[in-house]
Amino acid sequence: MQLGDIMLVRGMGVISASLSPAQKLIYSKSRSSHVIFCLSYGCFIHSAGVGGGAFDVCIK
Question: Which of 13, 43, 58, 60 has a CA-to-CA distance to 34 between 20 and 30 Å?
Fold first, then answer.
């Protein structure tokens, strides 16, 4: 992953499961429910239901 990379993913929770089909009303090929933006190697920011956003460091 590099700075600026954007990932469209689908969560595994109840809300994510309902967002994907709801988005198909706007874009029929939609499969994602979540957007993750890469700030640097292993550092990501993404939307969170409560509070609006989250910052995660995921280095393996």
Answer: 60
CA distance 41 to 56: 11
Rounded CA-CA distance 31/58 in Å is 24
The whole-number pLDDT of residue 54 equals 66
> The whole model's pTM is what?
0.60
Task: Give the separation between CA 59 and CA 28, rounded to whole angstroms.
Answer: 34
pLDDT at 26: 81
Segments making up each domain of the chain, as ranges: 6-57
